[in-house]
Amino acid sequence: EPEVTQTPSHQVTQMGQEVILRCVPISNHLYFYWYRQILGQKVEFLVSFYNNEISEKSEIFDDQFSVERPDGSNFTLKIRSTKLEDSAMYFCASSGTQGNTEAFFGQGTRLTVV
Amino acid sequence: GESVGLHLPTLSVQEGDNSIINCAYSNSASDYFIWYKQESGKGPQFIIDIRSNMDKRQGQRVTVLLNKTVKHLSLQIAATQPGDSAVYFCAENRKDTGRRALTFGSGTRLQVQP
Predict the structure, then answer these.
(1) Chain A residues within 8 A (CB-CB) of chain B?
(2) Bond into B82 cis (ω within 30)
(3) B19-24 and A109-113 as β-strands: parallel, antiparallel, unpaired?
(4) Best A3, A94, A101 residue to mutate vs chain B (most B CBs within 10 Å)
(5) What residues contact A66, with CB distance under 8 A and at least 6 apart?
(6) In this complex, do A31 and B100 lie within 8 Å of one another by their Cβ atoms?
(7) Contact flag B45-A105 (C-beta cutoff 8 Å)
(8) pLDDT tens across A64-108, in order?
(9) Which chain A residues touch B4 with a CB distance below 8 Å?
(10) Pairing state of beta strands A10-13 and A109-113?
(11) Mean pLDDT, 10 residues at a time, over chain B (114 residues)?
(12) What is the phi-psi region of residue A53: left when phi exceeds 0, alpha when psi lies from -120 to 50, beta otherwise?
């Protein structure tokens, strides 16, 4: 069964450093997303990406964040100058064609900022 | 994908019993709803979805009920098994605006006692 894969599974970084979280969405999907889940809280939407551009973003997704699809398979989330409060699980998701909004999630990357 | 869930409501059921997990959604304009299951250390896993033009949808061992009048969604799991133990989230979306971002609820932890 096709799946969304994320690397690394766990990333520890020092406050102020930049991190890049990587995702390989399901190959024939067109919509890509990043969500985050702070420990003990609900899953929160960050950004959606379609046709090589951001289609929607939440208020969480400020200038500190950026996304990129550098090639035909990878989808990345970059967090510049990480803060302690960026510590969370970051989930990548993808969904298929127009009208099918069922999103498939990856296993997540646990980001710990120290 | 851990929701330690210090504040999560918990439903404890005996193996073989039926489980009902409830969710109240906030946006009366939402027209697409999904239930996700999240096991410890994993990302949200799609269970079943329902559109607002329906009030009931059945899957394998699961049924989702939608009451738009009171903005209430429920997930019924028949013959609950130990493997059903997880945190369950409802998520909503408003498709008519073209938005694809999901808004997640705060989750319910299901514990299945053998």
Answers:
(1) 4, 31, 33, 35, 37, 39-45, 48, 50, 55-56, 58, 89, 91, 93, 95, 101-108
(2) no
(3) unpaired
(4) A101
(5) A77, A78, A80
(6) yes
(7) yes
(8) 999 999 887 899 999 999 999 999 999 999 988 655 568 899 999
(9) 39-40
(10) parallel
(11) 55 97 89 92 92 95 96 96 96 76 91 93
(12) beta
pLDDT digits (tens, 9 = 90+) for A50-63: 989 999 999 999 99
Q: For residue B49, give the amino acid letter.
A: D
**Which residue is associated with the tokens 């098994």?**
B81
Q: Is the pLDDT of residue A5 over 90?
A: yes
CA distance A58 to A91: 15
Segment 26-65 of chain B within 8 Å of chain A by CB: 32, 34, 36, 41-46, 49
